[in-house]
Amino acid sequence: NGSKWDLNLGLLVHRRVCYLLGSCHVVTTVFPSALFSFLSVQTFDKILIANRGEIACRVMKTCKKMGIKTVAVHSDVDANAVHVKMADEAVCVGPAPTSKSYLNMDAIMNAIRQTGAQAVHPGYGFLSENKEFAKRLAAEGVSFIGPDTHAIQAMGDKIESKLIAKAAKVNTIPGFDGVVKDADEAVRIANEIGYPVMIKASAGGGGKGMRIAWNDEETREGFRFSSQEAASSFGDDRLLIEKFIDNPRHIEIQVLADKHGNALWLNERECSIQRRNQKVVEEAPSTFLDPETRRAMGEQAVSLAKAVNYSSAGTVEFLVDSRKNFYFLEMNTRLQVEHPITECITGLDLVQQMIRIAKGFPLQHTQAEIPINGWAIESRVYAEDPYKSFGLPSIGRLSQYQEPLNLHNVRVDSGIEEGSDISIYYDPMISKLVTYGATRAEALKKMEDALDNYVIRGVTHNIPLLREIIVHPRFISGDISTKFLPEVYPEGFKGHQLTATGRKELLATAASLFVAAQLRAQKFLGDLRVSNTQQERRSWELCVELEKGVHMLGVSRSGATYTVEIDGDKLEVSSDWNLASPLLTVTLNGIHRTLQCLSRNAAGEISLQYLGTTFKLRVLSKLAAALSVHMPEKVPEDTSSILRSPMPGTVVAVSVKAGDTVAEGQEICVIEAMKMQNSMTAAKTAKVRSVHCKPGETVGEGDLLVELE
Amino acid sequence: MAALAAVRRCRVLLHGAVKSSFRGSPSQPRSYSAGRLSVQERIERKRQAALVGGGQKRIDAQHGRGKLTARERVALLLDPDSFVEYDAFVEHRCSDFGMEADHNKFPGDSVVTGQGRINGRLVYVFSQDFTVFGGSLSGAHAQKICKIMDQAMLVGAPVIGLNDSGGARIQEGVESLAGYADIFLRNVMASGVVPQISLIMGPCAGGAVYSPALTDFTFMVKDTSYLFITGPDVVKSVTNEDVTQEELGGAKTHTAVSGVAHKAFENDIDALLNLREFFNFLPLSNKDPSPVTECHDPSDRLVPGLDTLVPLESTKAYDMLDVIHSIVDERDFFEIMPNYAKNIVVGFARMNGRTVGIVGNQPKVASGESKAPIRYQHLISKLYYCCLDINSSVKGARFVRFCDAFNVPIITFVDVPGFLPGTAQEYGGIIRHGAKLLYAFAEATVPKITIITRKAYGGAYDVMSSKHLRGDVNYAWPSAEVAVMGAKGAVQIIFRGKNNQADAEAEYVEKFANPFPAAVRGFVDDIVVPSTTRRRICRDLEVLATKKQTNPWKKHANVPL
Asked: Which listed residue, of A3, A259, A446, B304, carries a Cα 20 to 30 Å from A420's Cα?
């Protein structure tokens, strides 16, 4: 194998040179504990990755380490994407819409034939859990890097998977659905299930008429109400009594199984922080599980995997209640988005393992060899506006982009680079930011630093939300559930709320930055016509506006250190005052902080990203501030009669036409973005003056949709 | 009366300071005896009177309109304590219509003039005082302005005018008109010698508008300034058009429709602070080099995003501002005329600290946008992205000529499929207007660096600072296509009436839709990786800093106006 290693090293070096010439951004991966022996066995010569974005890049990185050639597929708009540049070969499989490209099996099969790829890694999403695709590959003798068709099918069906799980002695949510004779029978059923239970009319949809019972008495009461409601409202006597899972956590077990009947569990991932059933922050291990529960969950997960002859990497998802009872939810028969945190704590490369397994190699490890080393946290960085229902998609071009890879123990899985477009066609995920530490506290601190050092410009992103979650007392104490976000932010996310100290830090930084810029503006190089008679200023009186508050500040300078006086307090601010860098690293009274200056203009307006949230400030000289009282108030545009698109997307339906009268709250049109439909409603009762969109049209954020009179 | 009141008020203020001078005659404040103390007193009185212009009542009224006073403006514009005032004692000389009365005399009259510093660099300033006779222009007023302009010419320093004037001082009649002409003449003499900037901060109507029009840059304040030859009343009586002041000559009209003004700002403070920023880009005179400021942005910074910026489909748009922002120092670009003829982008930026002028075709915006009926706009935007048209040619030409006059190197980003076709353009004189841009680039002797990002077709290729017009360094990105016209049009002409048009088109694309035809002839100096563009430009500017080129002697050139 030695010669092959040399050969591949040569190849890598060659490609790196190409990168330099093409000046592409090379994303490096950090595995905290690298135990890999990549070139120990011969697997495949060439693998096609039937995916895009970060996961395609992720898979290719391992392929490169294993000396495997890679083939990318891409849609026409992705022709310049990072995953295409990273691959040894690339094939265009169709136009932008996923149904015509990344889901286009014919085109992908052609690409396989054309390139002679021996195996396909499907990533996640797209064709990863498509049994038809796995079948077609098998028919052509191409390896599918994932489980076999049987397992995909069995676990893909909600009802069947539960039955199999039950048979494999995996905990499922216990329940009863049918006619309950009387209250005594209800109590008997409830006791069989175990408290707490949820009682409701079978015919009632969703959580309607749902009652929670924690003891026999409450069960009787619940039975009385629900059976009355069932009879009167629905004319259907059937009741549903089911285990109620209070404060449910979403905890999943990573499993790895080979084609020889061996299976391992690689510990858990805590994925409770979610919005709209999509995970936002994940960690491994979970603060909640004790070793016994972990082992019990792991063993059940392995027994489920064995029950379906599972091979490859898979994930068994559980709901866990406040008493550590856990219940099977579903099994994902693919590589999971959040797999990096498992890699961090176990030291395994899951993609490498999947490739080995697909080739038919047995597992390299025994259960006893699977460690939990340290703690890993993953934040999903999305191009979305966290101030709109915890995240509405946003699009745009990444005009500046810099991953915090200068920090140790930070891994960034991304498939984009500076200049990339986040388009309406695909998932708006920018990257997965993973930090690692010996302890959870260390990993969390690293996450704070990493988020502060992450430069993303050109698209709206959710770093404000991520940065707030990871420092929230409830999150730090581990007191989380899938309802975390709506519980912590019942009014919606509003950004970081400044403390008195924080406010002072922010004001002092803005004032110092303003002065630094003013001083720099006087530095003309080699110009003999700059005044020599003017004294260099040493102190400034400034007025800084922040969140409608006006503050008078005194600033004095000594070298690169500014002393800022705010309401009798003194803050020392020092920095290198590099006005070109997007990052602004300052020391405030001895405390290091990394802020970002998003914009700064001649009129004294400064946007600073501080603790994740963007704050708008205005710094004026004392004179300018005093005179600004005379400036006329500008009347903002009346927005109640104008409906603008809150995000970029496609108009699915328009329900009104010019001349119609609409009532307040009535639907006017529907915009679809990233598989999400959003109903746009009228802000007031009025006549429609004009309609500026029609179904099928794409609209940008802020585009005028409808005007009312 | 107001002036009188103001004088009295000042006396009260001064009471403490000059107490001794009133000894013996406190009940006779207006006794202008010839004694030594009395002169001292008079000097102070006059000086203090000059400081309050038309008096507190008029100052309050000025503030009530959302405007600052002439002196407040000067204080904000210049470095603290740097203003040196001239002619605070000048008074008007009119003796008709009761103007000779004491209460109608204001020390300094209706304009504040002098010199000062902006970030340490010399500038001459006049600021019209609306509180004195509505800022109207008297002979004395004009004389004051002329004085500082003359001195600015002598020492080679820019002139900034802060305009806020109701027009001519009607009481003075022809003397006022003479005053305007004196200023116009100096504007013309100073043109190309020192930069001249006008900031319109109130009314500027009638003949008065021609002074800003003759200066290099005209900026406006939104909602509180307007410029027109004749006001709405006269318009109504002559053409029967109903139009408001704002519609006729407001900031929006002049920055988006007429192209008279180069930029508009939110209010007085915003405008003055921006003017300070803008001033830092300018050389002090035609004998000074383009200024170089301390720069924190590495000159060899790569811009990886540029490698994927130009879309693969040659009809798809991208934003030239993305190119400009990412290449220049610190993404700092002061765009000139951002809302007019948006299909060409012009403005100032810095490369490794040195001021440069940037000219770029804007593929994001269709040419002739405002003129085409809405129903044809989609056609036009598809076919004629970033064509040169009348307005963009004029906008570009004026900017290039400013840069050339003041030693500012010009960097041109080219993506141009040609000149905009159509009767509107031909009847409008696209031939003579397009010639202006051609003329400007051709005559310019400052360092000229050109980057062809995509299309450079036809005559427009020649115009856009091509090698043939003495471009010093001309680069092509790999996406560049230098050709006489697009493949489709070319094939229709070459193979007229033949069947194999598709094949011929493919052949044409293969042959011409790439940078090679230009590169093999040396019409571009190199084909460069886009991400290295900043590094290359910075190095080239360093080399070209000592460029010396002169045009043949002539009395003056004859640009096709």
From this structure: A446
